[in-house]
């Protein structure tokens, strides 16, 4: 179906941040990594897609942790000219009544957030308004779809309206003009809590964008108490809207009941996140997997001992890199838990340490455990920084019975090592705040099962005891800290650790199912094809 597209009618994907390569620090977390995976999958499929994002010579920060877990930051200085092609085109956008010149850098596939609310609106004006202007300067006149990855880029709709005014020499926007813009736009929402959506007061909008843009914004249902809500702007001007998991779609429909919100569950770029040992394994048994990720379904026929050997190689690589980085030696034979997330309260990284005495008893009576943590707290998130300190306190408290390591500087390279090399991927979000999550999907590509609260993608991916294990009650049951901690300990003590230490062949069977059932579906190739059929083509 995508063969019917022509290069003259590309899809334009707007995202405030895009993670493409560890050497290009233009991403802060999952949103940017997902954006990069979407663009890579589109390239694999031969889709005419271009991405628009922001870059800064000071990328997302370097994380530094002292012995007590106190996080400090330093700039990540990099040179775009070392990785990107400088384009000669320049465009101008008016911000605060002054002309701001914008240039383009191109990355061919074979956004840094920060500052106060005023700076943020200026960033979003550059992304949306200058983004469209730069596309025109680069020759993108006819576009199949503009895909807004969250509300950060929603001001692009104003640029499209502005073009209609200029092109038709009109004084006012008509209903037909709004519908024409709507037919071109697709919107993906990621954030399941109201506080996560960017909002700007009317006075600031007038100051930054000027009277004309403010007038155009009054034509959209995006204001509440004289405050511009960027999510509502994206919703209003999009013919197709989706959440990033089935459950997240339900949550989003409750948050935005006036809009028809669908669901396209996230996926990850298989070739990027599969370790070398599993690439070799798949190439031997299912060589078509690179071209068509659905072939990973046939991993069900790979001998369990070969799955276990490929995982052992990935685990050796992780533990070797960890020892080189920290000087800490972890035992290859010990059950290893991985937890790597943005450090913020709703992720609840300390749930595993809710009852230290029980954790000690489990390791003493059932089998030893070692745990690898990683993740950054936003520089202004003091609660997130406190969580890291608390993990360091737990590390000290349990040092006689559990080896715990916190790796600083979590990035794409470290994520790939961890997702492939641990024995289980732990995820403990507070329901229903996990929109999707993708780290467990990356783990599944490498045969690593998940142990997770039933929220986000895991509601769809969890087949209990087959692809991994759940923590706590079902998806409709609110989080209960005490109950979920008890469930986590029960699963480790009574199910997972006995599997790992007493019946390793059965554990390898779970690993194989994680690939066959989850990796074959929760990949970016499937995700992009769903966007193509349901969002990009459907609006035409």
Q: Percent range for helical residues? A: 40-55%
Corresponding CATH superfamily of the largest domain = Glycogen Phosphorylase B
Tally of DSSP helical segments:
18
The parts where pLDDT drops under 50 for at least 5 residues are: none
**Strand runs, count:** 18
CATH architecture of the largest domain: 3-Layer(aba) Sandwich
- Identify the overall geometry: globular
User: At the first level of CATH, what is the class of the largest domain?
Assistant: Alpha Beta
Give the neighbour order of strands across the main sheet: 2-1-7-8-11-12
Structural class: alpha/beta
- What number is the mean pLDDT? 92
Largest sheet data: 6 strands, parallel
Q: Indicate the CATH topology of the largest domain.
A: Rossmann fold
Strand residue content: 15-25%
Task: Walk me through the structure.
The chain is of the alpha/beta class. It folds into two domains: 2-267 and 526-536, 3-Layer(aba) Sandwich (Rossmann fold); 270-522, Glycogen Phosphorylase B (Rossmann fold). It contains 18 helices and 18 strands. The protein has helices at residues 30-45, 117-137, 156-168, 175-184, 202-217, 230-236, 246-255, 270-273, 276-285, 304-326, 356-365, 382-397, 412-421, 439-445, 458-461, 481-502, 504-519, 524-536; strands at 11-14, 49-52, 58-65, 71-77, 85-95, 98-106, 145-149, 185-188, 199-201, 227-229, 240-243, 261-263, 335-340, 369-374, 403-407, 424-427, 450-453, 468-471. The strands form five sheets. A six-stranded parallel beta sheet has the order 2-1-7-8-11-12. It has a six-stranded parallel beta sheet with strand order 15-14-13-16-17-18, with helices on both faces. The two termini are 14 Å apart. The model has no long low-confidence stretch (mean pLDDT 92).
């Amino acid at each position: 179906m995508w063969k019917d597209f022509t290069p003259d009618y590309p899809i334009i994907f707007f995202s405030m941040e895009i993670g493409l390569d560890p050497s290009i620090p233009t991403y802060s977390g999952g949103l940017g990594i997902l954006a990069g995976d979407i663009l890579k999958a589109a390239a694999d499929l031969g889709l005419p897609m271009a991405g628009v994002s922001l870059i800064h010579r000071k990328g997302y920060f370097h994380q530094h942790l002292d012995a007590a877990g106190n996080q400090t930051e330093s700039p990540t200085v990099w040179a775009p000219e070392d990785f990107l092609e400088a384009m000669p085109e320049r465009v101008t956008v008016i911000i605060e009544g002054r002309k701001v010149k914008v240039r383009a850098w191109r990355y061919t596939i074979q956004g840094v957030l920060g500052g106060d609310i005023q700076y943020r609106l200026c960033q979003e004006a550059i992304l949306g308004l200058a983004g469209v202007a730069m596309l025109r300067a680069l020759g993108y006149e006819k576009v199949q779809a503009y895909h807004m990855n969250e509300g950060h880029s929603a001001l692009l709709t104003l640029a499209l309206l502005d073009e209609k005014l200029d092109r038709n020499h009109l004084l006012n926007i008509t209903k037909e003009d709004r519908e024409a813009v709507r037919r071109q736009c697709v919107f993906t929402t990621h954030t399941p809590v109201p506080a996560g959506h960017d909002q700007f007061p009317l006075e600031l909008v007038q100051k930054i964008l000027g009277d004309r843009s403010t007038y155009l914004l009054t034509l959209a249902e995006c204001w509440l108490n004289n405050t511009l809500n960027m999510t509502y702007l994206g919703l209003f001007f999009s013919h197709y809207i989706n959440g990033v998991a089935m459950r997240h779609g339900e949550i989003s429909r409750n948050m935005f009941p006036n809009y028809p919100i669908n669901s396209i569950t996230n996926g990850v770029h298989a070739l990027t996140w599969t370790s070398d040992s599993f690439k070799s394994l798949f190439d031997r048994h299912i060589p078509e997997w690179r071209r068509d990720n659905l072939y990973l379904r046939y991993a069900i026929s790979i001998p369990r001992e070969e799955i276990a050997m490929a995982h052992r190689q990935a685990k050796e690589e992780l533990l070797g890199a960890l020892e080189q980085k920290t000087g800490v030696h972890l035992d290859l034979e010990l059950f290893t838990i991985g937890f790597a997330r943005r450090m913020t309260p709703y992720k609840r990284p300390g749930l595993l340490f809710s009852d230290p005495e029980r954790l000690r008893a489990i390791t003493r009576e059932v089998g030893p455990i070692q745990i690898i943590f990683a993740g950054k707290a936003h520089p202004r998130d003091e609660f997130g920084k406190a969580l890291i300190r608390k993990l360091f306190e737990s590390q000290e408290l349990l040092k006689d019975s559990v080896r715990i390591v916190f790796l600083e500087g979590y990035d794409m390279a470290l994520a790939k090592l961890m997702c492939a090399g641990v024995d289980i991927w732990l995820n403990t979000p507070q329901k229903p705040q996990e929109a999707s999550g993708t780290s467990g999907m990356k783990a599944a590509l490498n045969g690593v099962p998940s142990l997770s609260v039933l929220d986000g993608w895991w509601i769809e991916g969890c087949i209990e005891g087959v692809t991994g294990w759940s923590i706590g009650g079902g998806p409709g049951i609110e989080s209960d800290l005490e109950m979920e901690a008890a469930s986590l300990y029960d699963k480790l003590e009574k199910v997972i650790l006995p599997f790992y230490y007493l019946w390793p062949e059965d554990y390898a069977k779970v690993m194989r199912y994680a690939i066959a059932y989850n990796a074959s579906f929760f990949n970016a190739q499937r995700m992009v094809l769903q966007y193509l059929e349901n969002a990009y083509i459907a609006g035409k």
